[in-house]
Amino acid sequence: DAGVTQSPTHLIKTRGQQVTLRCSPKSGHDTVSWYQQALGQGPQFIFQYYEEEERQRGNFPDRFSGHQFPNYSSELNVNALLLGDSALYLCASSLGRKDQPQHFGDGTRLSIL
Amino acid sequence: QKEVEQNSGPLSVPEGAIASLNCTYSDRGSQSFFWYRQYSGKSPELIMSIYSNGDKEDGRFTAQLNKASQYVSLLIRDSQPSDSATYLCAVGQGTGFQKLVFGTGTRLLVSP
Fold it and tell me: Rounded to whole angstroms, how far apart are CA atoms B63 and B54?
């Protein structure tokens, strides 16, 4: 039973570039959430997708956008990268029903030079 | 006031002791609560979920919830050096679909 998979594992970009991160949810899960975790902090909610629509959004600028595909996989796009975007980006999947636990992938570590 | 608060630690306990990790939250409407373990350089791993007041036990782990006091705790019995990690408290927020609001985590060190 495959868990949540994310790609790539690591990524190095320069300021102003754009990046796309990918996530495949755990088998049987239909909801994908994205989080940003800065060093020494807890994960911060970016947004959540269900049935290919953004259902909730955290306090992140419009430079952060996403998409969910019919097979429930998801992408996170970040435009005009800033140094402060350097972080571990985590994808979590769950069943769409309320209160279900979210399971995290291994994350993508993004470094901005 | 932060939405979810945890003592950053480190909390140091000897091997075999009980480790007690605490968390408070501000949103009285929250209904779901989770504990995640995160090893250095790794992603969070779900270890416990709790939804009702009282205790919930799973192996060496016991989660405790007191909604009136807005307090969640995690007890780890017979602590092992392999339990050394950061423990994240997460509170579910939202109606219909929930987002997780995390504390900053408590670092636990278990010495042999």
Answer: 8
Average pLDDT over residues A55-67: 96
Question: Over 80: is that where the pLDDT of A17 sits?
Answer: yes
On whether the CB atoms of residues A2 and A93 are closer than 8 A, the answer is no
Instruction: Give the CA-trace dihedral at A39, A49, A17, A86, to 10 degrees.
Output: 0
- What would the mean pLDDT of B89-107 be, rounded to a whole number? 92
Cα separation of B92 and B100, whole Å? Answer: 5
Share of chain B above pLDDT 70, in %: 99
Please state, in angstroms and rounded to a whole number, the distance separating the CA atoms of residues B78 and B27.
32
List chain B residues with CB under 8 Å of A58. Answer: 99
Minimal Cβ distance to A56: which of B90, B99, B104: B99
> What are the residues facing A111 on neighbouring strands?
A12
Residue A113's Cβ-side half-sphere holds a number of Cα atoms within 13 Å equal to: 4
- The DSSP call for residue B96 is S
Q: Hey, what are B41's tokens?
A: 């350089």
Cβ contact (<8 Å) for A99 and B31? Answer: yes
Helix (DSSP H) and strand (DSSP E) numbers for chain B: 0, 11
* Mean pLDDT estimate for chain B: 95
* Strands A74-78, A64-68: pairing kind: antiparallel
